[in-house]
Design goal:
The structure holds 3 protein chains of 3 kinds. By secondary structure, chain A is of the alpha/beta class. Chain A is built from 13 helices and 8 strands. Chain C is α/β, with parallel strands linked by helices. In chain C, 30% of the residues lie in helices and 27% in strands. Classes of the chains: A alpha/beta, B alpha/beta, C alpha/beta. The complex binds iron/sulfur cluster.
Chain lengths: 242, 472, 188
Amino acid sequence: MKINLFIPCIVDQFAPKVAISTYKILKKLGCNVDYPFEQTCCGQPAFNTGYHYEARICAERFLKIFANSDYIVSPSGSCVAMVKNFYQELELNPEAKSIYNDLKIKIFELSDFLVNVLKVEDLNANFKAKVTYHDSCHLLRELNILNEPRKLIGSIKGIELIDLNESDRCCGFGGTFSVKFPELSTIITEDKVRNIELSGADYVVANDVSCLLNIQGILKNKNSRIKTLHLAELLAMGIENA
Amino acid sequence: MPNSNTKHFKALIREKLSDKKLRNIVKKATSHSISKRIETINNYIPEWEQLRDRANFIRSKTMQNWEFYFEQLLKKFRENGIEFFYANNSSDACSIVKTLLFSFGVKKVVKSKSMVTEEIGLNEYLERNGFEVTETDLGEYIIQLANEKPSHITAPALHKSRQEIGELFSEKFNIDYTDAPEKLTEFARLILRQKFLNADAGISGANFLVAETGTIIIVENEGNARLSITLPKLHIVITSIEKIVPTLSDALMLLKLLPVSSTGQKITSYVSFIKKPLQSIGSENSQKIVVIILDNGRSKLLKNDKSRSILYCIKCGACMNNCPIYQSVGGHAYGSVYPGPIGSILTPWINTLNESKDLAYGSTLCGACSQVCPVKIDIHNQLLGIRKLSIENKYSPLIERVIFKLWLLSMKNFKLFTLLSKFLNFLSPLFQESGLKIPFWSKYKYFPAPAEISFHSWWQKEVKIKERINNV
Amino acid sequence: MSKKILIEKFKSELIKVNGDCFVFKNLSEALKELKSIIAKEKIKNIAISTKTDIAKSIFDELKKDSSVTIESVEELNKTNSILKDNLKNIDLGISCADFLVAETGSVILKSSTDEPRLLSLLPESHIVISTSEQIIERLEDAVDFLSIENWVTVITGPSRTADIEKVLVTGVHGPKKLYVFINDIEIS
Ligand code: SF4
């Protein structure tokens, strides 16, 4: 069984550590991991803004590159949701459509893959910190992933997982929304940050780099001591510590 | 028509955002509704998700076969002695009401809450024509006194603080200031009771129209709808085409979801089931009931497979309560009659798309609305649908279209993608301190510098080379 | 579900929505409770629907009480004056239930000339007389009744609003108090 990594463009360019961590975790678990090298973007930014033509071209390209995968794993809930759920809204060409029908059940977000496919809930990791967890919208509502990340975080020795008030409320990112309505986006992010601060955690963990960058955008401006951390990074550091 | 003005959506949002007091009131009120709703579902309705599926099924079946149920309903109305009009648009609806009121010699009208009458601008229209119109739902009454518009479909005065309401009452009625909700409510009761007793006609909305029996169902908590439809001799129901349900059992099923979604109540204080006009007692004349059903662009949706689900809405307000945008700016920011997520997807169909498309962009697509919607409207997909239509119609700014063309170019051409990526990596050191500057974003939020090595490059160096070495 | 459990469920649900429930075995128990409500709410004028025998007996008994005036809807209908004028100064309306719904603590009332809608609407206090025979589990169980009758109201607790900052206030336009009297026939 070979796993094809799907690394969203924003991770590729702004948070490669998350991708490296994902790779290391899967390797550690003995998986055969490959990275289809020509991959770029799944088309989500265009799709969400209403540019279906542009999104469709990206989607067809993506499907061609990932055709015949056993599994596709990605450290991003929203990009997985794009491929898995929203590709069906695009008028894909017949070839792409048939690849899509094959792949849509083979694509997984990382925590989903670990807990539900590999049946791993404890990575024998070690990390001493107080963390809180933010439910990214697409992860939670498109992919129904609620407990998997919490189980994985909970299994790390030394970790104290603190409940985040309104953990399932959007962080205010919303892709182009945050550029079209920057003030509004900021107000919502500030609500999120307030709840994170109230939790008393040292780290806020999530499974989507875009949410984390957005939250970090405010934390950093406030000179907050709280750091953002992708679940993959947390797990990989924990594994190294063990 | 005195419809919505969504042109200045962004400006309105900015204005509302600067009002911190407003934000606190709206957040507090909506959070209250959110927790009540969850409490009731968790404590009493373990089968909630199945109920939603069932409700979605009923609504989709009804809207798909709307004409059939509509004919059935009309037949029942005729049998039951209820008069009926179909209004194509707002001005038709308004003039039907006016003609009716004139022919009955009506001077004074009491109204119970109805969003459709807001949609057609009925109050202003009737006042211009010399009628006295009194809103009787407490929230609506407050809004009418303040000369404002409802900011929420079930709680019209949600954006007002008790202090504001206290000041409003003291100013309008020359009474001592009080901000105690009990006292303000009692005062309104006394005033409105007289209005009820002296009214010549009552206008109400309807929650459901049952095709099988011709029953009009009205759901409320205050008793103002019951008074409006009982005391005057003329009762006008103004509602829209999607209120039809096939059977009474279907209506009861939807009734299980509606109040829970709105306020967390298992059922509202009053649910009225009306089939016929009230009979005369003693010397009194018997009552007359007239139902006006408004189309206003909705029948376009009946024929549209992709967007028909917008008509499933039972107007519970849960989507706005749970919307982070609504919670941050309140209902007036939308500038449309129906605010919040449902407003953003319905308004483009009852107004023009070009005028109201921005509403659909004022969303993070977080899906909280779809998650709570009792009839399972795919609200966030509908938002995406409107965005798509707006792009197809080239309503987006040219610069944005150009950006996406260039973006596509670099995403489908891997060489170009790599080149740009390398360029970003190369620039990385420049932005280490300050972070990357992104138009609009960076005014409020930090954005990190691009990585010095992208994952693509890392993979090539670390994995590919090692593999090659191992293979040798 | 047994009647007993249904009554208990009804009672607890009604209390949750700020209504009150009183289970009685015989007329004298009902009258005693009624009089204490009359005293507590300072009630002077009563109108009653005498659709059922218990209601009739209550009417006859209260007529003897000189501290209140009571009129039956039947009599009022004969006077040829307008109903709303007759009822607008009434402090307490007493009506007869058609069904009680245990799941939600609701009362189902159909309106008719002897049981006008206004009786449960204009007065500040509203008492519903019912028997344990009338209790059903869920609203759906009354679907046939709802489809046959021309005017039905389902009442759950007193009139309420939360339009000012979500603060619950009872008695906006309808009654401020709602009491449901249940004659438990099985026990008596
Ligand atoms: S769209 Fe759904 S959640 Fe929103 S008001 Fe309508 S029924 Fe309620």
